[in-house]
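Sanity check. The docking grid for S-adenosylmethionine depends on where the pocket ends up, so I'm generating a full predicted complex first rather than guessing from homology. Inputs follow.
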Amino acid sequence: MLATILPVLLLMFGLWGPPKLWHTIRDMIQGPKKHHGYFSLEQATYSYAQYRSMALAEVNDMHRSYVKLSRTHKRIGYDLGYPAKLRRLEELTILNALVTLNIAHLALSERPGLAETNSGDLGRVRETLKHFVRDWSSEGAKERGTTLEPILDALCLVSPERRAGMRVLVPGAGLGRLVWEISQLGYDTTANELSSFMTLAFRFLLSPSTTQRAEQHTIYPYAYWFSHQRSSESLFRPVSFPDTVPRLGDRLHLVEGDFLTHSRNYDIIVTLFFIDTSLNVISTLEHIYELLLPGGTWINLGPLLWPGGAQARVELSLDEILQLAKMIGFEIEGEDGGTIEADALRTRSVRCEYTGDRHAMMKYMYDSEFWVARKPK
Ligand SMILES: C[S@@+](CC[C@H](N)C(=O)[O-])C[C@H]1O[C@@H](n2cnc3c(N)ncnc32)[C@H](O)[C@@H]1O
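Predicted complex below; grid placement will be based on this.
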């Protein structure tokens, strides 16, 4: 009984509860935090449900910091509109929560008996909100242009008649725009994703019960981070999504779970900002090779940003990665005296951003590496 009503109560409290007080009372009642895995459905659902209270608690902290100013400086802050800015942040957090609560509702409606957890991850929810921008908004079109186009150009070299009979896998598919674009080219495509933060948000777009039309949802993805902003208009700007509505179907499939346990064979595997998330990149490359049919193609675009804190077994440089690929058996397009079939297949650096805020005063720029490799026939 408690298992059934608790998630609903949490959702309600997420919507109406005073943030700090609720966290304290909840921790006293529920005891030590229960973990179901950082990317688990339980963790993600709870985090989406509790986004509002966690984010409002941060706004409270910002307000408390502000009121510590001297009376004169508070007056200056007031004249600059700072308290009103914090109120605006509070309002927009509540609007963002309309989306996150709907994601949590969808998860709970599909899995009513979901086990309880009591630790939320605000950072990952915010990251997913930015992925809505990267993958599914008009604002993200420029970023998608630099990251997706090299891959799509390479895939366009296959004649449209042959594409329908070819299976493509995108492991670490995130919110699924790349995989959807590939399906639009006529390939039979599968998105694979480990993190429930991503799959729940993707499902929120895929489900007719939550997303019926283009530009239906609005979020304020940058509002929480006051750094590097030129103006409050820029900080608080809304972003609508999706620019187009994706649906699963004959050509678009979603497989949730760890890529390393996936076992179907594919003609093409595409990795975008993926291989460097591996805890063991040797296993990842070996598994890509294993899943490819003889003569199959691996297309990669991404940086080498290894998980920090010595979590990864090995942290290789680009030349080591390419050497590893060859040791596993891959032939890299245009290397070892081979000729390149088309310029779109050329190994090269691609300068691109990842969930960047295009109006901000600071940018993270990646010189990502693009390559196409083949498994010999
Ligand atoms: C840096 S993100 C890139 C997401 C997407 N490709 C993009 O470019 O927007 C890497 C993604 O890979 C997923 N991932 C990491 N390890 C995975 C694994 N073993 N199996 C499936 N997905 C994995 C993560 O959850 C994350 O969503």
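Relevant for the grid: The radius of gyration is 23 Å.
Also worth noting: Residues 2-117 form one domain.
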